[in-house]
Design goal:
mainly beta; 5 strands; 1 helix; about 90 residues
């Protein structure tokens, strides 16, 4: 079952951050940012690739959508190949 928990704020970094886990394994983070001129919070999904590196996969103003993207990436990273550098892409 997916779990989302808000991480404590880090001094000097005003953005919010949530850790997303599935079956007790961290699959990535969602960072909330306030973009200049925007009224709503912008959320960036940061996924953990099978190679252990972290990649920004997509961003939007919908928090739940970002959580869902991280869960999908953890099951099928090749679905997001268009967001990854060539050396991190996975064959389908």
């Amino acid at each position: 079952m997916p779990q989302v928990r808000q991480l404590p704020p880090v001094k000097g970094h005003p953005q919010q951050k949530w850790e997303v886990s599935n079956e007790n394994t961290v699959v990535g983070w969602v960072e909330g940012k306030h973009l200049r001129g925007a009224r709503n919070t912008y959320y960036q999904a940061i996924a953990i690739h099978p190679n252990g590196k972290h990649y920004n996969i997509e961003g939007s103003y919908d928090f739940e959508e970002q959580v869902e993207r991280l869960l999908r990436f953890s099951v099928n990273p090749s679905e997001f190949n268009h967001h990854l550098p060539h050396n991190a892409r996975i064959s389908r």
